[in-house]
Inverse folding.
């Protein structure tokens, strides 16, 4: 399997804090990778490094055999949704088209029929042609996510980086978003890195999990990574993993980490670099099973 992402002994520092330290890993073509970890663990930072927006202090990052660099057309990137997105009065087609020209909202002036065809093809890929003429303000969060994914697909990328796309979605729309990304990944053979606060919505789609913590990274199958010894090492404290009714709960003491830590990292796709640690959280655990 050809490597789409290769990290070789990568160390990344932000504001004097080591976010990743001497990390090496490889992601193959067509893999669906769930990226998990506490707030500040480096999920967004890693994606920005893959985009060439952050340079490592040491080590190398290669994308499809080339050094990571800004403006790589092989990468489609969905940052965390901005709060103002729902207020946009653009039509769906115009919103997707704005990705063709970052300086203007709406169809690029010189795009013409070719640009319109590219937009319609992207909308069709995510089953969103019915949203083309509707204003964003009238859409649900799940419908807007379809348009954001269509934007990512305009350049026919080989790699999708999706930064917390499930934020603010109810369980039904979370599952619909995961299923849509999985469908696109399978149909077009795209490699996907999908960051999330909670593992369970991704369980049925994942090839492997990349879990970040305390500068370290663990990459493997769900069983290889989501277990007490591996997660205890990443968190620096005892972690227990419980499997109940087909769902997985990551526990520290009496706390369900994935729910108690569900404080989002910001609307603009930045980690904010706060070192929130799970062992400092002592709220009652949320043991109830969420039904989709």
């Amino acid at each position: 399997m050809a490597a789409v992402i290769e990290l070789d002994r990568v160390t990344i520092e932000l504001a004097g804090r080591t976010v990743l330290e001497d990390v090496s890993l490889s992601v193959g073509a067509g893999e669906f990778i769930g990226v998990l970890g506490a707030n500040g663990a480096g999920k967004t930072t890693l994606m920005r490094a893959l985009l060439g927006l952050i340079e490592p202090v040491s080590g190398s990052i290669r994308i499809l055999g080339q050094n990571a660099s800004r403006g790589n057309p092989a990468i489609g990137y969905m940052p965390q949704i901005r709060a103002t997105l729902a207020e946009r009065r653009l039509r769906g087609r115009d919103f997707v088209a704005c990705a063709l020209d970052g300086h203007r909202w709406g169809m690029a002036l010189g795009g013409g029929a070719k640009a319109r065809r590219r937009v319609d093809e992207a909308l069709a890929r995510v089953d969103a042609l019915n949203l083309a003429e509707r204003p964003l303000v009238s859409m649900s969060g799940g419908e807007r996510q379809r348009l954001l994914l269509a934007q990512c697909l305009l350049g026919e990328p080989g790699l999708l980086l999706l930064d917390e796309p499930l934020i603010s979605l109810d369980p039904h729309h979370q599952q619909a978003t995961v299923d849509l990304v999985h469908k696109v990944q399978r149909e077009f053979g795209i490699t996907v890195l999908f960051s999330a606060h909670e593992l369970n919505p991704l369980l049925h789609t994942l090839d492997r999990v990349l879990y970040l913590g305390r500068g370290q990274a663990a990459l493997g199958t769900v069983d290889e990574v989501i277990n007490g010894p591996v997660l205890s090492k990443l968190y620096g404290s005892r972690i227990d993993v419980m499997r109940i009714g087909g769902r997985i709960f990551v526990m520290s003491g009496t706390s369900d980490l994935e729910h108690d830590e569900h404080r989002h990292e910001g609307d603009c796709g930045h980690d904010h670099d706060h070192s929130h640690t799970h062992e400092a959280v002592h709220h009652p655990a949320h043991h109830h099973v969420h039904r989709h």
